[in-house]
Amino acid sequence: MNITVAGNGYVGLSNAVLFAQYHKVTALDVIEEKVTLINQRISPIGDKEIEEYLKTKPLDLKATLDPQEAYEEADIVFVCTPTNYDVDTHHFDTSSVEAVIEDVLRLRPTALIVIKSTIPIGFTQKMRETYEAKNIIFSPEFLREGKALYDNLHPSRIIVGDLNSQGQLIADLMKECSLDDNTPVLLTDSTEAEAVKLFANNYLAMRVAFFNELDSYCMNRNLDTKQIIQGVSLDPRIGDYYNNPSFGYGGYCLPKDTKQLLANFNNTPQNIIGAIVQSNDTRKQFLVDTIIKQGVKKVGAYRLIMKSGSDNFRDSAIVSVLELLVRSGIDVIVYEPQVKEETFGGFLIVNDLKQFKKESELIIVNRLENDDLKDISSKIFSRDLYHRD
Questions:
Q1: In the CATH scheme, what architecture does the domain 2-188 have?
Q2: I want to staple 152 with a disulfide (CB 3.0 to 4.6 A). Which of 18, 82, 237, 347 is the partner?
């Protein structure tokens, strides 16, 4: 089949590479540098498997900036454009998704449009009604940053928001291109599939918030967090996973998805969903207050990335902590090799590691992923107990 993927962040590019193993894939993007890199078989994002597949696999993949070229022969178009949360409207900004839908319906009206972008509950049905088009469906993605292609090759589940033959087609396509034979497949209505995505991510955010609050309690009472987490996690209903304390949840998905679901509740009574959002803010402020009590004047932040193996700074919890520290009058410097400029978000970048260590009275680290700082362990402030995400 001829497949087009519109938007090539970690969701789009991982899907483009996945399908290009067996089908002709065109990757459409608006960023020229990204298109050039993909055509040179260089990954524009940090993802080990994407980098490896682009370099070593015989993929039928080309990238373009031209919508006409991308859509003119497409049988299926996967929409993977960003939908950031708009604080003014209290909803995702779906304008990029709508623009792709309009282009496809104009240039290739017979193509099946599969939305992979995270969208508000009820959006797909609204698009079908607005454009009088039944060929628009939704299929949620469940991918980790830095492991997106791996998660597509070994999917935990495949969910498609369409109960008809076109939904089965997409499920079969995703299963065919993966490496696993026994992946659970679920076909649902479109609105239910949208709800699955948001509720799943909210549950994960709730789990992060729970173990962070457990850790805050232990810090306040000088208890051993690790012992308590180990004891709690021995209950098989809870499990020993996704329980490592942090500076808060962040990244592409959880911050915006929790706020979107809260907005979707509207007049439906709730307590938990709102508390998840509030808990994340409370955690960051608690850690900032703890740091301030140490009486330091200059704090260094080792890495801005959201988590180990990621190259993403967006909505990183450590960035929020730094902003709160600056507002409290603390000097902040940052060590982040991915930033080549002298400043980032108003923070001074010091990428000479020796100088960074010397200047910092205290160094905050969300994830202790290597031994760069082991010689100054007394300066480190981190809540990373397991050295994993």
A1: 3-Layer(aba) Sandwich (3.40)
A2: 18
- pLDDT of amino acid 112: 98
Tell me if residue 253 is catalytic.
yes
The structure tokens listed for 106 are: 């104009």
* C-alpha–C-alpha distance, residues 135 and 116, integer Å: 14
CB 307 within 8 A of CB 369: no
Classify residue 129 as exposed, middle or buried by CB count within 10 Å of its CB (0-12, 13-18, 19+). Answer: exposed
Amino acid at 79: V
Q: Of 37, 32, 38, which Cα lies nearest the Cα of 16?
A: 38
Cβ–Cβ under 8 Å, residues 43 and 50? yes
234-381 in CATH: which number? 3.40.50.720
Task: Tell me what pLDDT residue 310 has.
Answer: 61
Residue ranges in the chain whose pLDDT is less than 70:
306-312, 314
- Establish whether domains 2-188 and 234-381 are of one fold: yes
Check 80, 177, 218, 253 and give the catalytic one.
253
Alpha-carbon distance of 143 to 309, in angstroms, equals 13
Give residue-wise pLDDT tens across range 202-247: 999 999 999 999 999 999 999 999 999 999 999 999 999 999 999 9
3-state DSSP call for residue 166? helix
Domain spans in the chain, listed from the N-terminal domain onward: 2-188, 234-381
DSSP 8-state assignment for residue 161: B
At residue 57, the pLDDT reads 96
